[in-house]
Amino acid sequence: MNRTVAVTGVTGFIGKHIVEKLLSRGFVVRALTRQDSTYTADNLIWVRGNLDDRVALTELVRGADCVIHCAGQVRGSQEDVFTHCNVSGSLRLMQAVQAGGHCQRFLFISSLAARYPQLSWYANSKFIAEQKLTAMASDISLGIFRPTAVYGPGDKELKPVFNWLLRGILPRLGYAESLLSFLHVSDLAEAVYQWVIAETSETTPFELCDGDIEGYSWKRLQEIGSRIRGNPVHLIGVPLPLLKLAADVSMLSHRIMRKEPMLTRSKIRELTHSDWSASNFHISKYINWRPEVSVERALRERLF
């Protein structure tokens, strides 16, 4: 396999796993990075720049057969922060692909959050990016992935939750009846690889999860944790006013430290939504992909 794939977001949690998967399957990878990286591998070519740098984007996609767009803004104190990266940056990358005239395939790693754009700035930015990329794509074959909550080695968001679960405490956000879904990063990386080699032209957004048809209620996560521990897990509801207070503190910290916050009142609306169940039915019709890692297996084998 000597095909070339251009990838953004390579230094991030998801992008790193996707690149490792592609390299292991013999692809040449051109990777966009804002800073010098010490990571080297055969067939890995670093391109210095970011989504604002049109020259770097032109160099990134030069000679590439396919683009995997993983880079995205997940933290922000206002909507413009998300729009600038997730919408405008994505469109600049698509423009570079079209101007290059070589690459014919573009995979946008969106989010299940885009299913409910009204919930958060992040969700809305991903949804708008999907719509604008679709309108722009023209003769470019566009794929859209909407993975649910992704976890695995290198993840910093769900790992603390799973660690506390295995210690016997599960903090519950939102309603007791809420449904959740998850996806191990190795399964997401495999799905990307299968999309690349399948060459499907389907542009409808694909949902991706670990394949659990029931979804995960908080009660079910509690039961899974109890089975693995051999001891009870205490489910503790976090009151919404406390979450809002934490978000306000996070915003204040942003102003002092000048770092974009993860937790905002916008993000809380997303985190406490009642239905994050998902289905792989649609994607499985188009590519040869089935997830292998359930939450229970990941917890038992510490695959996070």
UniProtKB/TrEMBL annotation:
Domain NAD-dependent epimerase/dehydratase: start-end pairs: 5-194
The record's SUPFAM superfamilies line, in alphabetical order, gives: NAD(P)-binding Rossmann-fold domains
Record InterPro entries: Epimerase_deHydtase (IPR001509), Lipid_A_modif_metabolic_enz (IPR050177), NAD(P)-bd_dom_sf (IPR036291)
| Lineage top rank: taxon | Bacteria
- Which PANTHER family does the record cross-reference, listed alphabetically? BIFUNCTIONAL POLYMYXIN RESISTANCE PROTEIN ARNA (PTHR43245), BLL5923 PROTEIN (PTHR43245:SF58)
The identity of this protein, by name, is Short-chain dehydrogenase
What is the protein's species of origin?
A: Pantoea coffeiphila
